[in-house]
Each structure stands twice: as C-alpha cells, then as structure tokens.
C-alpha cells in the first residue's frame, strides 16, 4: 500500500480540475475569491507546497522553505501597515562605539531623515544601527534583527517596538530591507556592511530592483569611503569588471546634511518607475516640456531599443499613480547606470 501511495504522488496531476476544486474551496472558506488574481496566486502557492511531497524533498529543505515563507508573510504584514511612509535603510557596523565620529554622523543623519517624515530601518543591533534609531526616535524606527550566536541582538531603543522583526535567514532579511527602502545610507562597517551594500549595487546594476539613492557617509575627516572607491577604480573599473556609469549608483556625501540633500534631490521630480513588457515607464511629479524630452533623447537615446523617449499616458497594465505624468521608452535592458544618470537629469530640470 505504501508503494502504491508513493507511485500515486509521483504521477498525480496537480492541475487536475477535481484537485483544483478543493483548493478553490479552501480559498473561499478563507474569505477570498478563487477566481481573482490573488486567488490564482494562492492556488499556485498551495500547488507548489504539495509538489514538495511528490518531489521527495528532505525535512531540512521543507523546514527552510516553511520558515522563510512564515518570515516573509509576517514581515510584509508589519510593513504593509506603514506602506505610505518613505523609508531609508541604514547599514553600518554593530561595533561602532557611541562616541565615535561615525556614530555621531549616523545619529545626525537619521534625525534629519525623521524630520523629513521618513522611517528609518536598521538591523536593530548596537553601533551604527542604534545610532540610526536614536536619531530617528522610537516612533520612526523599524528593526530587522537576525539571530546570531554573537553580537548584541537588539539595541535598547528598538527592543519591544512593534516594528521589530526577527529573522532566522539573511536572505529573507535582505529582501525586506530592499523591498521597503526608498533610499540606502551606508556607514563604515565590516563584512556584513559590505555584503548589504554590494547586494544593493548588484541588484541595481543588473536591473533586478528599482533604482534608489545610495549615500555613503562617515564621521568628520573619515577616509573609509574614499579608500573604498579607490579600490573600485584601481581594481574593478581598471580591469573592466564594472563600467564607468556604475559609479552613478552611489554618492559619497561630505556630511549628514549633504547626504540628506542627495536623497531629497532624487525625488525632486522623479517619483517611481516600472516595466510594462519591454517599456520602462518613469512616473514624475511634474510634466516635462518638449524641449526637455528632446534633451533626454539627445543624451540618453542609446537606452532605447527602438523608438524614442516620449511623454506617455498610463498603460492599461498600470493600476497605481495613474494621476502622475509619465515618460516611457522601449529599454535595451542594459546600462542601468545610465538610467540612473537619466533620473538625475530629470531631477535637474528647472
């Protein structure tokens, strides 16, 4: 009988209409509409969950997938309560003393961010992360903690905060950092800080995430980021392993005030963007003149796979920000550093 059961699992069609009927029944019992797009996505999730039984994954793999799904569901639920607020993720060392110039700069920067109505997301530990929460104050703080066998797990400011989320896995934690950040600020740190920073830069360079401002800050007279940039120029850029425009993805700020100005300027006229098939649609807060669009074409026409950069109405596939003006073009899906420069040009227009 056990053998027959195993054979039935291997041959079972999870798209069978009788099987789908029961899934749809469950979705209805949960209070949703099976025929909706939401219902279709949940149907696929249930199908894929049951396929784990057929594919004979081991218990460790099942635990990982289950825990990761739980972490993502819970974290998204917390963030969705504050989805209208702009947020910045602050990265940096957990070992930075509270009297260090980097700590004081992080505290000052996060205070400026909070004054402009932004939420501050950090890893919830001490050092730069505590400075970010201290400057932003408790009501503007999000903490994305990670279970580690060393380091202080939580700083005293975020402990007990309803916007504190604890993760088992780095990959789910980094997903939440990036999917809820409208900007990133990085302060000097170790391997973890570099991991987080290069993750952001890689995803923007490859077009796998939205382009956002990335500011690199440190205390007065610090040389950390200049030395970091020198390494990039002498080893990565000189060998052709990155392109000159990739340097557009980050900005080394001279002070907390300079960093805040850079973040604000990114959203001076630019609002957001998304792809509709091969077209990159850029939403802006104020329409561009024909002369300004002509300038964009002369400077950034190489980004177009075909056609040109032009003013556009909302696409049928779009459901949000329909009131905003737009420009659009069929993108080559290359040279995202130049797309960053295009956004800068849009924001520079008077």
Describe the structure in brief.
This protein is of the alpha/beta class.
Structure, described:
- The protein is α/β, with parallel strands linked by helices.
- It folds into three domains: 2-80, no CATH class; 87-266, Rossmann fold, CATH 3.40.50; 270-348.
- Helix content is 46%, strand content 16%.
- The chain has twelve helices and eleven strands.
- The strands form two sheets. A seven-stranded parallel sheet has the order 4-3-2-1-5-6-7, with helices on both faces.
- Strand 8 (270-276) and strand 9 (279-284) form a beta hairpin.
- Helix 5 (101-115) packs parallel to helix 6.
- The longest helix has 22 residues, at 59-80.
- The chain is globular, with a radius of gyration of 23 Å.
- The termini are far apart.
- Please tell me how large the radius of gyration is: 23 Å
The count of strands amounts to 11
Biggest β-sheet: count, sense, barrel?
Answer: 7 strands, parallel
Instruction: Give the distance, in angstroms, between the N- and C-terminal Cα atoms.
Output: 76 Å
> Structural class, from secondary structure content?
alpha/beta
The total domain count is 3
SSE order: HHHHEHEHEEHEHEHEHEEHEEH
User: Approximately how much beta-strand content do the residues carry?
Assistant: 15-25%
Helical run tally:
12
Please give the share of residues in helix.
Answer: 40-55%
Can you name the CATH architecture of the largest domain? 3-Layer(aba) Sandwich
CATH topology of the largest domain: Rossmann fold
| Overall CATH class of the largest domain | Alpha Beta
Mean pLDDT: 93
Low-confidence stretches: none
Strand adjacency order, main sheet: 4-3-2-1-5-6-7
Shape: globular
């Amino acid at each position: 009988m056990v053998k027959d059961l195993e054979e039935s699992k291997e041959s079972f069609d999870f798209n069978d209409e009788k099987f789908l009927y029961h899934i749809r029944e469950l979705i209805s019992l949960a209070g949703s509409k099976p025929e909706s797009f939401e219902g279709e996505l949940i149907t696929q999730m249930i199908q894929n969950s049951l396929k784990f039984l057929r594919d004979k994954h081991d218990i460790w793999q099942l635990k990982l997938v289950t825990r990761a799904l739980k972490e993502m569901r819970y974290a998204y639920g917390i963030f969705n309560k504050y989805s209208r607020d702009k947020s910045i993720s602050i990265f940096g060392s957990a070992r930075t003393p509270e009297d260090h110039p980097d700590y004081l700069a992080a505290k000052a920067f996060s205070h400026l961010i909070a004054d402009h109505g932004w939420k501050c997301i950090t890893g919830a530990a001490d050092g730069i992360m505590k400075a970010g929460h201290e400057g932003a104050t408790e009501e503007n703080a999000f903490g994305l903690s990670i279970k580690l066998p060393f380091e202080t797990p939580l700083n005293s400011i975020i402990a007990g905060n309803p916007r504190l989320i604890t993760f088992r896995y780095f990959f789910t934690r980094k997903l939440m950092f990036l999917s809820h950040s409208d900007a990133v600020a990085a302060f000097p740190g170790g391997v973890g800080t570099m991991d987080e920073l290069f993750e952001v830069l890689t995803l923007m360079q490859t077009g796998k995430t939205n382009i956002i401002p990335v500011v690199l800050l440190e205390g007065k007279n610090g040389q950390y980021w200049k030395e970091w940039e020198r390494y990039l120029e002498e080893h990565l850029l000189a060998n052709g392993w990155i392109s000159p425009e990739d340097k557009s993805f980050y900005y080394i700020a001279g002070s907390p005030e300079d960093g805040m100005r850079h973040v604000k300027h990114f959203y001076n006229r630019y609002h957001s963007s998304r792809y509709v098939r091969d077209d990159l649609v850029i939403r802006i807060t104020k329409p561009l003149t024909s002369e300004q669009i002509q300038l964009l074409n002369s400077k950034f026409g190489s980004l177009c796979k075909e056609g040109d950069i032009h003013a556009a109405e909302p696409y049928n596939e779009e459901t949000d920000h329909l009131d905003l003006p737009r420009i659009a073009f069929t993108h080559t899906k290359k040279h995202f550093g130049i797309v960053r420069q295009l956004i800068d040009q849009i924001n520079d227009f008077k």
